[in-house]
Amino acid sequence: MDFAQARNPHTVRFKDDGLIPNHPRWPLVIYRRAVNLDERYDPAAEIEDLFEANGWGDTWRNTIYDYVHYHSRIHEVLGIARGKGRVRFGGKKKGRIFTLKADDVAVLPAGTGHQCLGADDDFLVIGAYPPAGTYDECTTVEDRPRALKSIPKVPPPRKDPVYGAGGPLGRLWKTTK
């Protein structure tokens, strides 16, 4: 069963804000209404299956933390299974707030700050990671020196978590500097 719906990506680049480095070259990618959730099935399982079919694993079900953080050694995808939430990407100083709703997917390059500012009670997020990289969680200015070295070294994923090998992510996250 194919749950992905062809959508144009919305991209946003964030500058380093002093605490949150963000990625020096690659944008946050948001696909609106990218997943065609079928009411007959568990929406979280549908999103997990989609991500895993495209090589993104270590899936989890939860919400997005209510404090600003980022990952310096791995990229992350967030798929919204239920509800809606206000999420700030990019950090407190240089970031932007987006409302993410069921069927939306956000793909965060390493270094992208993210924080849930508020959400419906039923807000359910499915997260996953590409096979290359190691999970870490950075929240303080002390994390910066190591993060600034690690972030540019995280390789682009082989596949877009929603659209696979031919998806827009490969074009948007080119390896050229």
From TrEMBL:
Residues 149-177 are annotated as: Disordered. It comes from the Bacteria. Gene3D superfamilies: Jelly Rolls. Coiled coil: none annotated. This is Bll5202 protein. It comes from Bradyrhizobium diazoefficiens (strain JCM 10833 / BCRC 13528 / IAM 13628 / NBRC 14792 / USDA 110). The lineage of its organism: Bacteria, Pseudomonadati, Pseudomonadota, Alphaproteobacteria, Hyphomicrobiales.
